[in-house]
């Protein structure tokens, strides 16, 4: 049985007519940049996340970049973040001339270690970027307490975590900014790149609106040097069709995660396959279902021969990336992240995954380890 890592066609086919009608609506309007589709999506997402305003931008990467730019972060500044995330988290800091100060993760959640954040603070620290990795919130309260005591900003990298909650509140509503991605593989994904910046401070969101459009208001009058970070109207229209289904799709992912737990236990793999941990006070939306295993690369090759898609998130932590060699981190300095990079493997978790497909995944893993 073939089991892809992600099957977007299975998600999109029931919505085909609505999605094509949305694209046609944009075509008929000839409003391709910003405009009513983007504004309506921003209102809907602000309501979902529980913030006064949300600003649509061109990608999750640009959401982080604009958030850093809004605080004027640049040369001589330090920004603390996890060494284990998607590349953009650290790359945006470097693009502005600032220094990413990397710290290790907690082994159970893959998320940034709050104690390590506190230990990494210096007089040059200007911001902290916790990442809600794989769809589970980072432990925000101690991180925010550290930031408040030092007078620095928290920017939530919520690219993989739309709809996840911490202490009953949506991620993206805690920090000075929340940054989201609508890359097609996300729980809420578009037909291309897209992103969102949220804040509870309307002055900050106004600054993001300026930055996403070359710092311009009104036309050809520039208050600051920004960028072209605008969200396409077609992406907004597609996301508006999909947004009402987000809760149902996320619940399906959560059911699939629970079914994996039962299946792995029944197959006698509980002590062999280390399953994702759901930390207290948090909801996990399972943008990825990442297990930790011995002989990860051999297992992945075996699953590929069985027609089962997998992915490694992420094989090289930031501190070991060649482009960050000048940061001066040595191998071994962040052992938890390095262990995760050796052991982690994402299994199919999309909402349309069938019980039979999940059974095929678990059976193939069982044959590898138990014969």
Describe this entry's structure for a reader.
With 371 residues, the protein is an alpha/beta fold. The protein folds into two domains: 8-243, Type I PLP-dependent aspartate aminotransferase-like (Major domain) (Aspartate Aminotransferase, domain 2); 245-370, Aspartate Aminotransferase, domain 1 (Alpha-Beta Complex), CATH 3.90.1150.10. The protein has helices spanning 8-12, 16-29, 36-49, 60-70, 88-95, 114-120, 140-150, 202-211, 233-242, 246-266, 296-305, 335-343, 355-370; strands at 53-57, 78-82, 99-103, 125-129, 153-157, 165-166, 169-170, 177-181, 195-199, 289-292, 344-347. A seven-stranded mixed beta sheet has the order 1-9-8-5-4-2-3, sandwiched between helices. Strands 6-7 form a two-stranded antiparallel ribbon. Strand 2 (78-82), helix 5 (88-95) and strand 3 form a beta-alpha-beta unit. The two termini are 18 Å apart. The mean pLDDT is 98.
Task: Set down the secondary structure blueprint.
Blueprint: H1 8-12, H2 16-29, H3 36-49, E1 53-57, H4 60-70, E2 78-82, H5 88-95, E3 99-103, H6 114-120, E4 125-129, H7 140-150, E5 153-157, E6 165-166, E7 169-170, E8 177-181, E9 195-199, H8 202-211, H9 233-242, H10 246-266, E10 289-292, H11 296-305, H12 335-343, E11 344-347, H13 355-370
Parallel strand pairs: 2-3, 2-4, 4-5, 5-8
Antiparallel strand pairs: 1-9, 6-7, 8-9, 10-11
Helix pairs in contact: 2-9, 3-9, 4-5, 4-8, 6-7, 10-13
